[in-house]
């Protein structure tokens, strides 16, 4: 497939009246062949009971936080949960909380919470914040949890941190958010049973299948390039089972390159050299590339992704608009954080009110947003259909 001409999907969309085209309508048109079957049923999503109130909590809870690395989605998810807890009356006023959309830092936010949250039932423990969680750091944190040293519940962000702390080595409740595929990673056992009494994870089990359905409907590629770390954790972070399932379902070939994740910051240069070689190869061998989660800093993405521009290869960022802003052609992400904020805060409330964690609802998804990079589209010779532009939530145009 050449990106020079609009795809079959683009041509069919262009025939619709622009005034009637909404974001949801474009999404349906772009992925009509599979999205309905990829969405969980309402029975899976329904909450079983009314939310408890703060008066239902018999004791104070000391809360800790751990994340795989600094990342904007982690900070945004945490801020959304906190905002909903404030609205529910589970914290005092959070006016002045040091969070701005797009920031990656959670350490200053956590320090502020420890000093100012004013909750009747929550203590945000000042020395219980961990970022860039390493194997050594995870071992030390697990030891602290096992010994019961001042932490009653952990909020965890990211697959690496979730895998490290979803263990039987301690019994402290762990609520894991922003993991790529918690089931494939072994954080939880299934959508309806976490597998452990003290572990829970937010699931959107069809998220990446929806992404690939839309990407394929737009470009009709026959050979899709992917690069990932070929280890159990690396395959889970890339959500490889979802990619393989969609390749079989739709009927396209996967062109694979393996890039070992960096061990630490000293290994970052080797990682980026290997990644560059892998992306150079994919730019020559694939018709489109699905850029899976990686360990590059966002400010390096534009430079690293230049082979795809040079070879005029359409790209879809698994991560989201952050990489579209920096040169990926398109992505789909959460339209806003309010929904996941409510879902996470509700789960915290249920746990602290004494509801068993193991069978609490884990599945939540909301209407995705659409992001395009117009400059990237021009560089690869692809004309974004006008109704798709109207339906986009974010449009970027500077590389």
List keywords for this structure.
ABC transporter substrate-binding protein, four-stranded parallel beta sheet, alpha/beta, Rossmann fold
The mean pLDDT is 86
CA-based shape: globular
Distance N terminus to C terminus?
24 Å
By DSSP (H or I, 4+ residues per run), the number of helices equals 19
| CATH homologous superfamily (4th level) name of the largest domain | Response regulator
Number of domains: 2
The CATH topology of the largest domain turns out to be Rossmann fold
| Helical proportion, percent range | 40-55%
The CATH architecture classification of the largest domain is 3-Layer(aba) Sandwich
User: What's the multimeric state?
Assistant: single chain
- Would you state the CATH class of the largest domain? Alpha Beta
List the strand order in the largest sheet. Answer: 2-1-3-4-5
Largest beta-sheet details: 5 strands, parallel
Strand content: 15-25%
Report the strand count. Answer: 12
Structure description:
The chain is an alpha/beta fold and 399 residues long. The protein has 2 domains: 61-204 and 336-359, Response regulator (Rossmann fold), CATH 3.40.50.2300; 206-334 and 368-396, Response regulator (Rossmann fold, 3-Layer(aba) Sandwich). 42% of the residues lie in helices and 15% in strands. The chain contains 19 helices and 12 strands. It has helices at residues 8-14, 23-30, 35-38, 42-45, 72-88, 107-116, 135-147, 159-165, 182-185, 207-219, 232-237, 240-251, 268-285, 298-304, 306-310, 321-324, 338-352, 374-380, 386-391; strands at 61-67, 122-130, 153-157, 174-177, 199-201, 223-228, 253-258, 288-291, 315-317, 330-334, 368-373, 394-396. Helix 9 links the parallel strand 4 and strand 5. The relative contact order is 0.16. InterPro entries: ABC_transpt-TYRBP-like (IPR007487), TAT_signal (IPR006311).
């Amino acid at each position: 497939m050449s990106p020079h001409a609009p795809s079959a999907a683009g041509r069919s969309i262009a025939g619709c009246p622009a005034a009637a085209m909404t974001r949801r309508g474009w999404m349906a048109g772009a992925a009509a062949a599979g999205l309905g079957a990829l969405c969980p049923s309402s029975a899976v999503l329904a909450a079983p009971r009314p939310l408890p109130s703060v008066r239902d909590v018999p004791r104070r809870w000391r809360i800790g936080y751990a994340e795989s690395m600094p990342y904007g989605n982690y900070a945004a998810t945490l801020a959304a949960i906190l905002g909903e807890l404030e609205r529910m009356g589970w914290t005092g006023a959070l006016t002045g909380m040091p969070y701005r959309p797009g920031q990656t830092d959670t350490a200053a936010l956590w320090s502020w919470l420890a000093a100012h949250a004013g909750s009747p039932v929550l203590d945000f423990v000042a020395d219980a914040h961990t970022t860039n969680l390493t194997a050594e750091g995870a071992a030390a944190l697990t030891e602290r949890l096992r010994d019961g040293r001042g932490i009653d519940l952990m909020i965890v962000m990211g697959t690496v941190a979730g895998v490290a702390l979803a263990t039987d080595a301690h019994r402290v409740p762990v609520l894991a958010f922003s993991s790529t595929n918690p089931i494939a990673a072994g954080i939880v056992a299934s959508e309806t049973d976490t597998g452990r009494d003290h572990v829970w994870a937010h699931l959107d089990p069809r998220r990446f299948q929806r992404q690939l359905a839309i990407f394929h409907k737009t470009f009709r590629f026959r050979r899709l390039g992917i690069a990932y770390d070929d280890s159990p954790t690396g395959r889970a972070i890339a959500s490889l089972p979802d990619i393989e399932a969609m390749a079989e379902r739709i009927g396209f070939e996967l062109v694979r390159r393996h890039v070992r994740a960096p061990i630490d910051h000293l290994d970052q240069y080797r990682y980026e050299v290997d990644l560059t070689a892998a992306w150079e190869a994919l730019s020559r061998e694939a018709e489109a590339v699905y850029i899976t989660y990686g360990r590059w800093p966002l400010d390096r993405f534009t430079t690293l992704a230049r082979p795809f521009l040079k070879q005029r290869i359409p790209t879809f960022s698994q991560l989201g608009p952050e990489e579209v802003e920096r040169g990926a052609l398109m992505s789909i992400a959460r339209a806003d954080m309010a929904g996941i904020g409510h879902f996470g805060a509700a789960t915290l409330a249920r746990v602290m009110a004494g509801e068993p964690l193991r069978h609490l609802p884990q599945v939540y998804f909301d209407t995705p947003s659409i992001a395009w990079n117009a400059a990237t589209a021009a560089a690869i010779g692809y004309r974004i259909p006008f109704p798709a532009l109207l339906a986009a939530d974010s449009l970027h145009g500077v590389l």
